[in-house]
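Before relying on records like the one below, remember that each one covers exactly one chain. Contacts with other chains, cofactors or solvent are not represented anywhere in the record.
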Amino acid sequence: MDSRDEQPGGASATGRTLDRRAELSEFLRSRRARLKPEDVGLAGFGRHRRVPGLRREELAQLAGVSVAYYTRLEQGNGRNVSAEVLDSIARALRLSDAEHAHLTHLAKPKAHKKKPAGRQQQVRPALRQLLDSLDGVPAYIAGRRSEILAWNRMAAALFGDWAELPSGERNWARLVFLRPDYRELFVDWEQKAIDIVCALRMDAGCYPDDPRLSTLVGELSVKSEEFRRLWATHDVKEKNHGVKRLHHPLVGDLALNFESFRLTDDSDQSLITYHAEPGSPSAESLRLLAAWGTDATRAVPSPQGRFEDV
């Protein structure tokens, strides 16, 4: 197998960046709004409340900080906030590990930013060789902004031959939200869309000054109502394994286990693999795709956004 590898360059590298203070403010408000007083052992004080969820003073009480201090933080001023205070607020808001990390990135970006936001993402030659060696296993390397950086022939047979797309279009967010054929490919399209938006939110927390990410978010917000709805939830999470159900035009329905491995030398990149349960119909379907080889790519999404038959 030959791995395909081109750097995404179609996205604009200019334009405004995301407003970190606004992101911090909206994230805290959205997490506070999802909690009810009774969820955290507080009295509800009647049925009628002006705002959904916890009030600022209730959250401040739970976190052990003053209302004025928390109010400044929720207004986006986290410049001098300590890690201990952020931990207390995360516990009070019952944040997940991913949400806690996102809060820290937004509140203290300089302490967590490792690389220039606009740097070109590179895939090591050894990783491309690894992709080629995974015979019968669809696999690809994903980077920041949901970009697809490198892949093997089985991934092309399963998801479409990304080599036929302009480099800037090799992006999961653009494929899922802007290509109708990918709605057909993913049985649970909504969950796939949620996963992508959550990952983009994590990127936005780590790299709020990334102009390419801002351009991507702006484009999707204009072109996709579903993206606008999901982006407004401010949800973040990391999904490193699970089961993905697909409907392939050649082999029909597949249930594949996916695993995501974050690279230790570049935490912005992950290796994602798909495999089927041994002896299952999905395993046989993968064998058929492997036998068809490049011919299978003619029956998966084309660059024009339609399925083609072999």
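Confidence is low (pLDDT under 50) at residues 5-15, 303-310.
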